[in-house]
Design a protein that fits this description.
The complex is a heterodimer of chains A (204) and B (554). Chain A is built from seven helices and eight strands. Chain A is of the alpha+beta class and 204 residues long. Helices cover 37% and strands 14% of the residues of chain B. In chain B, α15 (389-395) links the parallel β15 (383-386) and β16. The longest helix of chain B is centred in the middle third of the chain and has 21 residues, at 189-209. The chains are: A alpha+beta (204), B alpha/beta (554). At the A-B interface, α2, α4 and α5 of A face β1, β2, β3, β4 and β7 of B.
Chain lengths: 204, 554
């Protein structure tokens, strides 16, 4: 199993269970949390200056979206890369986005969540709509597709292009308004970790 | 298309599960109910009809279909590897056996370098599923969901896992793995020779490479036995069909009963492939990348195609027309009655019918005449000719269509064999071709990869595109077969095809073949090209024509 570099941030703070969060498995709740405490952070955090290419993608309703405007606009952004026929990682990343949306509630106003398909020819707007519905994505969470060429460009821009789509790596990118720098969270996060990273970024 | 919905268990409604359970309840609780387990595994549905619930990554809830085991462990239960994350095999045969990957079976979906664990017992399996602790007391990755399930449901799941990939699929024994290729009687004779020549050369080369393998398997040191025992001699059978399409199904069944095959590789069709497609579904035989122009659309689990064929080409032409003239116009299309062109014409008519401003006029040419009415080109309308090279040579001798900056005449690269077969000079110079392949120098480069290999084996350079694609199909099947190690299960084989096509060396005529779970058409677009130089010159972007999927309820 791929071992991520242990992060230097405050591990304990992250591991506090979410208030009203996960529904731990009934009788096993205590046991479960005990094991959670023993786990290390499963992602690596770093900060980068990523250029957003001047490309136009298509949203799940078939409307054109200027990517640079979308990602550079007012309000914080959470970005990831998925595809609808992905077996294990993407559904989990999307379920994590859904949980974060659910948990942040009103705090989320103005936050833009963006998921870009890395299998753009198969992932038509219709397939993205279907996928979005499965995760109850609302207007604040955009799923995007486009030409293969453009989608490769944006992946290269975020240093996440690994060739064949099954070789993709899980990562989430965060940015606040008016700051060119992106926080890269490589690996899979829990919802609590993602919320923590988001609050840490927006608190500054 | 979503395979899970097409799977035998995929069509189940929760209610049916409840009814089945109610009918079978007395006495099954202790042993576990395989059908209940299957509904959990594939659908994420509990025996009560409620959705399965789990928590993944410590605090992320998964519900129902999203929590189903099949998502990560696959239809075969033999695991998947995605983005560097391993979902281990969960078949009963492998779970309830100690694992030591230093000298036992090492699957490509389970590449751990030297991991060991004791055999699972029912108790430790239930513990792993509920709380993520493996038999050694180690925590499983956070990506393995923790499930809220009672003993009774888990016993049913366990009973299902015992049946999963339990028996090797037909078509393979201790020494030989049988494969077949199907040629329909209406297939082009030159194409037939090309496909058979390439496949025979490929399997002869395989046999030469692996001639010492049986001995190696017999005399293996114990630490390598898991690997060497996997060797099988790959034997190719050519199934030449005859008569009308209605008779093919029976012929295929007879050949299959005489000698079951593990999979169909490549093949060649013409007017219809439907009976072969139906055979693959009927016997659950993977049918990989036949050379066909009109594959059946939107149905089926077991066949994988290069593309949607002529209906895709119609979609590409429709997009190009829309780009050239967004306000719409009248299109004239000609095809011969009873030919594959008829299917293509129907697809273009349907597509353009939905576009405001476009109207389509059909000119159906009689099946028994080669004449193309000169009146076709009298108007200023774009003309789409769904005709092959022979039909054009015979019917177009004295006709000179108008040329211009826009495309006045569209032809199909697939039907005409362009740029490899000669065409009437005037057409070659003036027509636009819908070309669902790579273009420019890339096209030649891709194909030469294959033709160079074939030339070294004395095989001619005629039909180079067909030969390249046939060689690719055989190569891909070979790579997937090697991935199986000694676990010759067709569902696992198909999962390997779904996952390795993207990363295969592109020795095919397309820009990129990609698949994924449930995907059955590997290329999804085309260029519009002109044949003014040695290579097809693109005059459009790569135009994607993926049909709107049928939406799942809910």
């Amino acid at each position: 199993m791929h071992k991520e570099i242990l992060n230097t941030l405050s591990v304990l703070a992250l591991l506090l269970p979410l208030q009203g969060g996960a529904t731990a498995a009934g009788d096993h709740a205590h046991h479960h949390e005990h094991h959670q405490m023993m786990q290390s952070v499963g992602y690596h955090r770093s900060v980068h200056d990523y250029p957003v290419p001047a490309i136009t993608l298509i949203d799940a309703d078939g409307r054109p979206v200027e990517l640079a405007a979308l990602l550079g606009d007012e309000g914080p952004v959470m970005l990831n890369f998925i595809y609808t026929s992905c077996t294990s990682i993407c559904p989990v990343m999307s379920a994590t986005f859904a949980k974060v949306r659910d948990h942040l509630g009103p705090e989320l106003t103005g936050v833009r969540m963006v998921s870009i398909s890395i299998d753009p020819e198969y992932d038509t707007p219709e397939r993205l709509r279907d996928y979005a519905d499965r995760f109850s994505a609302d207007d604040g969470w955009l799923l995007l597709t486009g030409s293969r060429e453009d989608v490769v460009r944006v992946q290269r821009g975020f240093d996440i292009y690994r060739g064949p789509k099954t070789s993709h790596i899980p990562a989430t990118f965060l940015r606040v308004a008016g700051d060119a720098r992106w926080v890269r969270l490589e690996g899979l996060t829990t919802a609590a970790e993602l919320i923590h990273e988001y609050r840490r970024l927006t608190a500054n | 298309m979503d395979t899970r919905r097409d799977h035998p268990y995929g069509r189940w409604h929760a209610l049916q599960v409840v009814v089945l359970l109610a009918a079978a309840v007395p006495g099954i609780a202790a042993a576990g109910d395989v059908e209940v387990g299957a509904a959990l595994y594939h659908q994420g549905i509990l025996p009560t009809g409620e959705p399965l619930r789990a928590t993944v990554q410590r605090d992320v809830p998964l519900v129902g279909e999203r929590a189903a085991c099949v998502n990560c462990h696959g239809r075969s239960g033999l695991g998947l590897l995605e983005g560097g994350k391993v979902a281990r095999p969960v078949t009963g045969a492998l779970l309830f056996k100690p694992r030591d990957s230093r000298w036992s079976l090492r699957l490509p979906t389970d590449p751990g370098s030297a991991t060991t664990r004791p055999a699972y017992t029912e108790t430790t399996l239930f513990q792993a599923i509920r709380s993520g602790v493996d038999p050694d007391g180690r925590m499983l990755d956070g990506l393995m969901p923790r499930y809220t399930l009672g003993d009774r449901e888990l016993r049913s799941l366990r009973a299902y896992l015992e049946t999963l990939s339990a028996e090797p699929s037909p078509g393979v024994d201790g020494e030989t793995l049988h494969l077949a290729t199907v040629i329909t009687p209406d297939a082009d004779p030159a194409g037939r020779r090309a496909v058979i020549d390439v496949l025979q050369a490929f399997y002869a080369a395989q046999r030469a490479h692996t001639r010492n393998e049986p001995q190696r398997a017999r005399n293996s040191p114990w630490a390598h036995r898991w690997q060497n025992a996997a060797f099988r001699d790959w034997q190719l059978h050519v199934w030449q069909l005859d008569g009308s399409p209605e008779e093919w199904g029976e012929q295929l069944d007879a050949r299959y009963h005489e000698q079951p095959v593990f999979a169909l590789v490549s093949g060649l069709g013409n007017a219809t492939w439907q009976p072969v497609h139906a055979f693959c579904e009927r016997h659950a035989v993977p049918c990989v990348l036949p050379n066909v122009t009109t594959p059946p659309e939107g149905t089926g689990h077991w066949s994988v195609y290069f593309s949607r064929g002529l209906p895709l080409e119609a979609g590409v032409i429709a997009q190009h027309l829309r780009q050239s003239n967004p306000d719409g116009e009248t299109i004239l299309q000609a095809y011969r009655k009873g030919s594959v062109g008829e299917t293509a014409a129907a697809a273009l008519r349907t597509t353009l019918h939905k576009e405001p401003g476009y109207s389509v006029i059909d000119r159906e040419l009689p099946a028994d005449s080669t004449v193309i009415p000169p009146g076709l080109f009298q108007e200023e309308w774009p003309v789409v000719l769904w005709l092959d090279d022979d039909e054009l040579h015979q019917g177009m001798a004295d006709i000179e269509p108008a040329s211009g900056a826009n495309c006045r005449v569209y032809l199909s690269s697939t039907l005409t064999g362009a740029p490899h077969r000669p065409l009437p000079d005037v057409l070659a110079r003036t027509a636009c071709f819908v070309h669902p392949f790579a273009a420019g120098a890339e096209y030649r480069g891709r194909i030469e990869r294959a033709t160079a290999w074939l030339a070294a084996r004395g095989i001619s350079d005629e039909e180079p595109r067909l030969k390249a694609d046939t060689l690719f199909a055989a190569t891909l099947v070979g790579r997937a077969l090697r991935h199986l190690r000694s676990l010759y299960h067709r569902e696992y084989f198909l999962e390997r095809i779904e996952h390795i096509t993207d990363s295969a060396i592109p020795g095919y005529s397309y820009p990129l073949l990609t698949l994924g779970t449930g995907q059955r058409y590997a290329s999804r677009g085309g260029y519009i090209v002109r044949l003014t130089g040695p290579d097809p010159v693109p005059i459009s972007d790569w135009l994607v024509a993926e049909p709107v999927p049928i939406r799942s309820p809910g």
